[in-house]
Amino acid sequence: MNSVIDTAKTWLTDFFDPQVKKEIQDLIEKDHEELKERFYKNLEFGTGGMRGIMGVGTNRINKYTLGKSTQGLSNYLERVYPDQELKVVIAYDCRHNSDTLAKTVAEVLSANGIKVYLFSELRTTPELSFAVRHLDCQAGIVLTASHNPPEYNGYKVYWTDGGQIVPPQDKEIIEEIDSLRYEDINFKAKEELIQLISSEVDDAFIKASVKNGDFNAPGKDDFKIVFTSLHGTSITVIPEVLKQAGYKHVTVIEEQAKPDGNFPTVKSPNPEEPEALEMALAKARELQADIVIGTDPDSDRLGIAVRNLEGEMQLLNGNQTMILMTEFLLEERKKQGFEGNEFIASTIVSTPMMHSLADAYKVECKTGLTGFKWIAKMIKDHPDQHFIGGGEESFGFMVGDFVRDKDAVTSTLLACEIGAMAKANGSSFYEALIQAYVKYGFYKEKLVSLTKKGISGAEEIKQMMVDLRESPFKSIDGSEVVRIEDYNSGEARNLKTGETEKLDLPKSNVLIYVAADGTRVAARPSGTEPKIKFYISINAPLQRAKDFEKVSAELDAKIDRIIAEMKIS
């Protein structure tokens, strides 16, 4: 505890604001447990940025922790681009303090002689990614904590291609940040270098979204959409995108339309959670709508609900929407004629069905680590190839390469195009999904997240990963484990032959079991939340659409057995 107090006392110098010093002094005198949580470690700038609880301390999001990261980024940009005018664009979401923290970040950049384009009001993450290239910037920053609870905020850094930073930039920026003291932060803004931006970028982004997501689907006049922004940024752009694409029946959930960092109508502003879409689902039932779409606070994730075979609204998961969106884009590309250089993309914890889809269309499916920055890197590293689209299980998708991060704006339009076209052809979004299972195999996935908060929780998660590596499962639901992929060591081991092979991806704390029957179970500690996540994927053939319910129930039962066997409920 003495070391924690010593660290806290370094924040009692005159460099820090008086209210900050007072709060720390009070904690030193009255609340050692809270002091420990705030100062026992530095909030790390990870390989994409920072995310954490807001407040005073080294393990919190505040003007000093963000200021230090921004100073390090400024130093790095000056070193890498010594003879160029440096430009950075900044956006922020609806969270508490996002606007003031964004202004602080802009001030530090300007203090270091860097031109800053700062959005005048909250904007979506995909628009920030688009703006980096549109404004010819070397970097971009968005202040957001995505779908985390209200007490969180965060800071993501984008590079010249519009994608989040990847090797070698990420490690080099981290080294620069780690070499600094808080007193090295230059807070003396040069206001003349900060330019507010608004409609000029909005108009270009909306035009690009419509161009990439509108396929002139028939039946738009008869397609009913219910949309909720869940108190987030997407309200600034999605209704306008749908309008310009020709959709006339769009109902916005007004109770959730006003941006609000408290997210007052939901337990969590996460479209992965069925509860978050309850208001929209109720409105859809009232209006007999065809589709419900909800987005998270920074509008990179989207949740979709469509009518199932019984006519009830059913929330789809990220793997299901990814498959249908990718198939649709591939089919549209097929109409133009494949050139032989196309590829789709996904991640190691997403559905293997993407590979079955790629095989059917004879295109490449590239697979990367979790996170769209790796898909952006694929696009950057292979300029001779044409990226069709791709996504990951966590309710994110990217349509083409004009945005280099998951994009709920264009994906919302694409989902409506798929639904409208299917309805006009006497089918539905859901029936199209079932037909995909018939064609490519019925893959079903389940994500199990275990929350382990605080210092003890972090240790528990660490031990769970150790146990999974040192005492691996020999079988899963009666099927022998034949392969273990350890992305931390960078090796995959064939348990039948004992042979190992190198995994051609950067190292990451992910472990994947592969069973003889095609079952895959991946374990991965979250990089942004106090959670360990288990991704279960199983599959079976589906010979006929009318067998869907029967095979679906069998796969559900198998998943339940796996969860019980692995004790991860």
TrEMBL record:
<comment type="similarity">
    <text>Belongs to the phosphohexose mutase family.</text>
</comment>
<feature type="domain" description="Alpha-D-phosphohexomutase alpha/beta/alpha">
    <location>
        <begin position="204"/>
        <end position="305"/>
    </location>
</feature>
<dbReference type="InterPro" id="IPR005841">
    <property type="entry name" value="Alpha-D-phosphohexomutase_SF"/>
</dbReference>
<dbReference type="Pfam" id="PF02880">
    <property type="entry name" value="PGM_PMM_III"/>
</dbReference>
<feature type="domain" description="Alpha-D-phosphohexomutase alpha/beta/alpha">
    <location>
        <begin position="317"/>
        <end position="437"/>
    </location>
</feature>
<dbReference type="InterPro" id="IPR016066">
    <property type="entry name" value="A-D-PHexomutase_CS"/>
</dbReference>
<feature type="domain" description="Alpha-D-phosphohexomutase alpha/beta/alpha">
    <location>
        <begin position="44"/>
        <end position="180"/>
    </location>
</feature>
<dbReference type="GO" id="GO:0005975">
    <property type="term" value="P:carbohydrate metabolic process"/>
</dbReference>
<dbReference type="InterPro" id="IPR005845">
    <property type="entry name" value="A-D-PHexomutase_a/b/a-II"/>
</dbReference>
<dbReference type="GO" id="GO:0006166">
    <property type="term" value="P:purine ribonucleoside salvage"/>
</dbReference>
<protein>
    <submittedName>
        <fullName>Phosphoglucomutase</fullName>
    </submittedName>
</protein>
<dbReference type="InterPro" id="IPR005846">
    <property type="entry name" value="A-D-PHexomutase_a/b/a-III"/>
</dbReference>
<dbReference type="GO" id="GO:0008973">
    <property type="term" value="F:phosphopentomutase activity"/>
</dbReference>
<dbReference type="Pfam" id="PF02879">
    <property type="entry name" value="PGM_PMM_II"/>
</dbReference>
<keyword id="KW-0413">Isomerase</keyword>
<dbReference type="InterPro" id="IPR036900">
    <property type="entry name" value="A-D-PHexomutase_C_sf"/>
</dbReference>
<dbReference type="GO" id="GO:0000287">
    <property type="term" value="F:magnesium ion binding"/>
</dbReference>
<keyword id="KW-0597">Phosphoprotein</keyword>
<dbReference type="Pfam" id="PF02878">
    <property type="entry name" value="PGM_PMM_I"/>
</dbReference>
<dbReference type="InterPro" id="IPR016055">
    <property type="entry name" value="A-D-PHexomutase_a/b/a-I/II/III"/>
</dbReference>
<keyword id="KW-0460">Magnesium</keyword>
<dbReference type="InterPro" id="IPR005844">
    <property type="entry name" value="A-D-PHexomutase_a/b/a-I"/>
</dbReference>
<keyword id="KW-0479">Metal-binding</keyword>
